[in-house]
Amino acid sequence: MEFETYKGFNIWGHAILQQEEVMQPERYAASGTITKGTKLIEASGILGFFDADDDAQLAGLDWARAWIDNHA
C-alpha cells in the first residue's frame, strides 16, 4: 500500500493480489482510498488489473488525485 498527502487529503493506492489459478503468474487489482483526518471521503472499486503491485498502487494514487482535482 502506497500513501501520500495530496491537497490536504490522505490518499492510498492499494494492490490486491489476485490468484484465480495457482499456476498462473500473480496479478494485482488496483484501488484507491481518500481520507481527511479520520473521515473516509471516497473509495474506488477495482480500477484495473496489473502484473506488478507497484503499478496497481500507482493507479490507485492516480485515481485519488484525479478524484480530488474534480471534487474538492
Terminus-to-terminus distance: 23 Å
Continuous helix count: 1
Number of domains: 1
- Morphology call: elongated
Q: Give the topology string: H per helix, E per strand.
A: EEEEEH
* Rg measurement, Å: 13 Å
Category from helices, strands and their pairing: alpha+beta
* Mean pLDDT across every amino acid position: 94
Annotated CATH architecture: 2-Layer Sandwich
* Largest β-sheet summary: 5 strands, antiparallel
Tally of strands: 5
CATH topology: Double Stranded RNA Binding Domain
CATH class: Alpha Beta
User: Uncertain spans, ≥5 residues at pLDDT below 50?
Assistant: none
- β-strand percent reads over 45%
Percent helix range: 25-40%
In short:
With 72 residues, the protein is of the alpha+beta class. The chain is 26% helix and 46% strand. It has one domain (2-71): 2-Layer Sandwich (Double Stranded RNA Binding Domain).
Description of the structure:
The two termini are 23 Å apart. Strands 1, 2, 3, 4 and 5 form a five-stranded antiparallel sheet that branches. It contains one helix and five strands. Helices cover 26% and strands 46% of the residues. The protein is α+β, with helices and mostly antiparallel strands. The protein has one domain (2-71): Double Stranded RNA Binding Domain (2-Layer Sandwich). The relative contact order is 0.29. The model has no long low-confidence stretch (mean pLDDT 94).
